Each structure stands twice: as C-alpha cells, then as structure tokens.
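Quick one: structure tokens for this chain, please?
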Amino acid sequence: MGLLFWPFMIASIVLSFISLVMKKPMFLVISSLLIIPLSLYLAASPRFEWWGLIFPFFYLGAALSLRKNIRWLSALLIAPNIILIGWIGYAVINQ
C-alpha cells in the first residue's frame, strides 16, 4: 500500500509545479488522478471523514483557473495539497 502513496504524492507535487511553470493545465489533471489513492485513504480515516475527498478537486480547480490564465489562483489552490502532503510527511518522519 505504501508503494502507491509516496511516489504518487511526490509525483503530484512535481507535476503541479511543472504545470504552473509551463502553463499546462493537463498536468494538474494528472496530479488530481495521482492524489486519489491518498484522498480515498483519508476519507476512510475518522479524522478526515469526507474532507479527504476534496483534495483532488483543488487540483482540478487549479487546472481550470490556469486554463483561464489566473496563475495566482492556481498556486493558491495547489497550496492545500502541498501543505497536506508536507504535514503527512512530517508526521511519518517524527513519529
């Protein structure tokens, strides 16, 4: 199970940065697909419940705003996913 989470999470962050730099919203759509396993895992946990299902939609909203050439909004919508992955990484390393 861990084989899916970390590589997919890191790939989604890398693709989101590439998407912002190259102005390609398709990479954000791919990032939203890569974060779905984490999202489903969080939705099954009692702490996040259904809030875990929202995180792929941040990437999709960022893709839509990038398509309309609103880069600051895209960066703002990507930030919760980066913060979430950073928080999970910090919690795993400092158990």
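The mean pLDDT is 92.
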